[in-house]
Amino acid sequence: MGQPFSCFFKHIKLMLQKLFGFKKETMSVKKELMGGLTTFLTMAYILAVNPDILGNTGMDKGAIFTATVISAVAATLVMAFYAKLPFVLAPGMGLNAFFAFTIVLTMGYSWQFALTAVFVEGLIFILLTLTGLRQRIVDSMPLILRRSISPGIGLFIAFIGLKNAGIVSASESTFVTLGDLHSPSVLIACFGILLSSVLLVRKVTGALLIGILVTAVVGIPLSVTNLTSVFSTPPSLAPVFCQFEWESILSVDMLVCVLTFLFIDMFDTIGTLIGVSNRAGMVNEDGSIPGLKKAFMADAVGTTIGALLGTSTVTTYVESASGVNVGGRSGLTSFTSAVCFALALFLAPLFLSIPSEATAPALVLVGVMMMHDIRKVDFSVYITAIPCFVCIAFMPLTYSISDGILLSLIVYVLLHVCAGKWKEVNIGSYILALLFVLKYAFL
Question: pTM, whole model, 2 decimals?
Fold first, then answer.
């Protein structure tokens, strides 16, 4: 009996090796499965947060939920079977904020226009990945500015969370002020932030998701949360499926939106892949990452599919590090996460009933996580510190991710030219800065 079972498991592991790059000598099936489950639990908050953020544009939240799940499953399966890496993808935080609060609510365009920008970005990403130009475009923007994008988005996301929860509110004299701390919704949000923070400090798996769910439950007796059911068939995609707007495809604003999506997604994905790969010991001695180009393709395909389905840019999640930390090393880890996301498709009532007060803690704490790269900015070197500060500060203060990025690059180029250090700026930065100046001059 022992020999047949031994042969069976041997064939299973050979199949896993072929499908997911599983190496029986150094990997464990149990750790791969646990890694996938851990990553899902750590990033499942996006199923509640993404519909909440994109719903501000007037999009149907149920349809967004379904689009979020299916796009995450599709992109992660590409990562599992094609790239064979333990990274999980879903509509990205920061990118969904740019979609909703900058393109739609600030620039005044329709959400169909924003989806069109995402779709175009996805097609360009596929082309850039196939031709190898993706890395060159990233290199055209100064490294120091790239490191300031994530902290800026972090502050912006945290501000959105505090605003949605009522912890920060409008003021005629000071623009913003502390909200009403006697309000049940504000108190629930504060409780959620404290609870989620404690869970993170204690390194509890799925801390943000647990914080969201517990906060939502606490809100039920206070009529902040209205939960009617838990299970249901998936909401229809029809309200957001393939809803594109081609009339403004050649406008300068469309170009700016596409470029901003491109930059944010590229920098976020590259940083995540490098950081998590280093943590997993998957980086070669020369600094290269095996399968990086294929990982980029998963990101590009996911973004394109996501736009067709009706959601914002799909990107690789830094929360993949949680699965790597428990032993995930192959595509089997990401495949496991994809299966978990697929099962969550039938929990739409649960995730859609979660109010802004319960998702606010996740937004605030994701903002904290995104401040990580700020330590790489030397604020004593003013020629780079000033542009970085512009990028970080102007995102929340102008309520626009794109303005923070565009203005920071313009300031960076101007300071270097005026300081006589124009040779330190690459030609790509000059071209981008000129385009951005023209954008502000004529629009």
Answer: 0.79
